[in-house]
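seq:
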Amino acid sequence: MARVCDYCDKRTETGYQLARRGLPKKKGGIGLRVTGHTKRKFKPNIQRIAAVVDGKTTRVKVCTRCMKSGKVRKPRNVAAATA
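struct:
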C-alpha cells in the first residue's frame, strides 16, 4: 500500500538532514561547517476517507491539502441532516 494521494499524486520524498558545527559569520563566528548528512524521508499526511467519485461513495487515499482545498467531495450524511 503506497503512501500516494489519489488526486494530486503527492508521495514520499527523500532528502538529507545536515549536521552542522560552528557559529555563523553574521553572529561573529568563522562560519558553519557541515560535518555529516543523513538520509531521511518526507512523508505526506495521507488519510483514507470516504469520498464521492463519479456519483458513488468509495474509499480513497487523499492528502490533507486536497481535503482543505475542496478537491474531494465527502458524501452527505442523511441521518445527521434529518435529525
